[in-house]
Write a structure and sequence with these properties.
Layout lengths: L11 H13 L4 H7 L3 H4 L1 E4 L2 E4 L7 H13 L2 H10 L24 H18 L13 E5 L6 H9 L8 E5 L4 H8 L7 E6 L6 H15 L7 H4 E4 L3 H7 L6 E2 L17 H7 L1 H20 L6 H14 L5 E6 L7 H13 L17 E3 L11 H6 L6 E6 L7 H20 L19 E6 L4 H22 L7 H16 L12 H18 L1
Parallel strand pairs: 3-4, 3-5, 5-6, 6-7, 8-9, 8-10, 10-11
Antiparallel strand pairs: 1-2, 2-11
Helix pairs in contact: 1-4, 6-12, 7-12, 7-15, 12-13, 13-18, 14-18, 15-18
Length: 529
Amino acid sequence: MSFPSINPTTTKAWARLQKHFSESKERKMQDLFAEDSLRASKFSIDWEDFYLDYSKNRITQETISLLLQLSEEVQLKQAIEQQFSGEKINQTENRAVLHTALRNFDAMPKEVKQTLKKMRVFSKKIIDKSWKGYTGKPITDIVNIGIGGSDLGPDMITEALSFYKNHLNVHFVSNVDGDHVQETLKKLHRETTLFIIVSKTFTTQETITNASTIRNWFLQKATILDIERHFVAVSTNIKEVENFGIAKENIFPMWDWVGGRFSLWSAVGLSVCCAVGYSNFEKLLRGAHQMDLHFKNKPFKENIPVFLALISVWYNNFYKAESEAIVPYSQYLTKLVPYLQQAIMESNGKQIDRNGKPVTYQTGTIVWGSTGTNAQHAFFQLLHQGTKLIPVDFIAFAKALHKQDVHQQMLLANCFAQSEALLNGTLDEKNEHHYKLFDGNRPSNTLLIKQLTPENLGALIAMYEHKLFVQGVIWNVFSYDQWGVELGKKLAKNTLSALDEKNTLQNKKTPTDLLITKTLETKKNSKNN
């Protein structure tokens, strides 16, 4: 059975949505609420610890019906079944897309079970201090060396679960910027630091450069034989890992059916295991699996990820809203947006459809945002009175972890008030000050979650994974490759040799050539001075 490849603009639902949009686009959300006192309860989904209020959107029951019809015509249900069954839906790379299998304890591949056991045993040794460094001291610091999905996911999860952290200090080195590495090393002691190198191929330029620099720093005081006590790897390239000096038993596997930006659920999450303990890591997985079941089994009209995706398509393709903001009202989730930027924009930022043809409609949305209430004092002015239509996802937790009830009430009051202000706006009654005009009718979703637990965090991340999957199915693009990223890597390698001062550029006038020339001149002049 081939994966659905239907141009959405050829469906009956799309044509009906266009007609519906032209007829309803001037309607105000304020009027929709005035016409139906039960709108808030009707336009919501209540599931486990999650409550999604999507009533504050420019949609009617007819909009919902037509969007659900669109999901049927693009064969979304069939696409979901094919993903979960392990068919090779990532056809441009001939791979399955099975990150959901990493968290399904009822039907888990044997190799995944074995890897989780290995992660549990290893992290326990680090946490209980039975793993010793080369001078006999226990580990106090963990450094994750990776980039992209090998960094953003574990970094975000570790920060989000800070409440559950143990005594270990966890650091993340990703940028090939040498200043980033050196600033991290300044905080560390060789004899008490463990380095986790995360690279599927063990050839990723940034990661291997950083790992080699750190290895050289380590060997200034330690020996080659000491490496096996302080370096472990998550990789498939066992030969290169062993050449680096890492013992075979300290290599954790990866699989080609897990994409990098969805890999935090795998051994890529080893730093998370060390930071919060294996039991909390497993709770994260189990929470994500519960969302998987919700997404897979619930009718679309009761399905949180499906609804979020359909609403996003409505704004992106009919209102021509190019971006959407995500604003979590929790400082713990300060790294959620950068993580979701990779997950969403790397997945659906595509201009060729699954039939190999250029798309004639907008695909990937631009995702941005920050934490509330900080964001209110930054970009919210644009949301409220700017000329751009920017739908917002508000994410809030009913209960605080530290039981600071006064703070939490103030936090929630701000979150709810902002969504209300976006909806209703204000008008200067005397009409004296036009700059105070605040027309409202600005759309938002509010996701209220009981508390920031590992389970609920897992479900939240899985929710956005499934949302982007649905968007990709509707837009008819391959969500699980990233050829644009690969092109950048290739060009960077070609440029690197030109930056070596031993090479000279002759009669080359491309923009890159001129930048290289200027760089070399600057370095030369600084040496002379």
